[in-house]
Amino acid sequence: MKYQSVKLSDIAYETINELLGCGDENLKFLECLYDVDIAYRDDEFMLFCDDKQLLAIFEQHLKLLLDLIASGKDIDLNIIKQTFLELTGESFIDNSYKKKVIAHTFNHKPIICKTYNQAKLINSIALNDLVFAIGPAGTGKTYLAIVAAVNAFKNGQIKKIILTRPAVEAGESLGFLPGDLKDKIDPYLMPLYDSLHDIIGEEQTQKLMEKNAIEIIPLAYMRGRTLNDAYVILDEAQNTTRGQMLMFLTRLGHDSKMIVTGDITQIDLKINCHSSGLVAAKERLKGIEKIDFIEFSNDDIVRNPLVQKIIERFDEK
To answer: pLDDT per residue over 85-143, tens digit each?
Structure first.
């Protein structure tokens, strides 16, 4: 396999910069869409692939994007995806996620989306400012949200990762917990630590927390803040009240993204489920630009195969 090139000529420097995007964001997204390595140097795009049809589509795509820029249109990831689908059709990317490595674990194992909805979540995070991932346990919602956040941090797109959960007990009272504040809230936040340790390692997690580049905090401590230049992830969102959800969502600042994950079949609030902030958000926020909802099903469960069977049996009436 070797690089094949698409040569551009007489293109203004400013136009090329707009095409590539801030921090080459658009170029990286094109790599994701085409599932190939792409480099740009001296007015030439180079694709590491042997597929001549793919190269022809990419060349046509570039010309279309350049025409849009010339007409005064601002190029963003959503436009890049829309024009890509116009040229290729949805079926082109239906299975490409199975080959695309989106990150590596601390132990250098590749992280690949295992279901189409997982791939949709990763794409949606790239395209939107607020994404809700709703579905049963074991579908990788929170883990992939943290993967996306770590990738953005490593690429210099954000300055901070903020992870939060409501401190609600799952159907039992734990009573008095000894220790300082951190000791008391850590049991509620342990699943978030587990994901970070798997992705970047325990030592690096601790270092970034000491530098305040990663915050893992209970939801109650979000009030009054404005969160800029950050990925903010709210886990177990089904256990927020409507007031808590509104408080959380209105923390969104400039150059930030929010990812909200939860399972509306596992609400541990003592009040009725219609008071859940996640249910309210699902009912009220659909259709707003830059807000997206990705809904997972039992078919997306990627834990031990027994988990899917257990959930299906418990769902039976």
So the answer is: 878 765 555 556 666 788 999 999 999 888 888 988 998 898 899 999 999 989 999 99
Collapse the DSSP code of 303 into the 3-class scheme (helix H, G, I; strand E, B; otherwise coil) and give the result: coil
Q: How far apart are CA 224 and CA 215, in angstroms?
A: 16
**What is the pLDDT at residue 44?**
86
Give the whole-angstrom CA distance, residue 308 versus residue 230: 34
Q: How far apart are CA 242 and CA 10, in angstroms?
A: 55
pTM: 0.70
Enter the tokens of residue 206.
């601790």
In terms of C-beta density within 10 A (0-12 exposed, 13-18 middle, 19 or more buried), how is residue 10 classed? exposed
Polymer length of the chain = 317
What six digits make up the tokens of 188? 């509620």
* Strand locations in the chain (E): 3-7, 38-41, 44-48, 101-104, 110-112, 130-134, 160-165, 214-218, 230-234, 257-262, 291-295
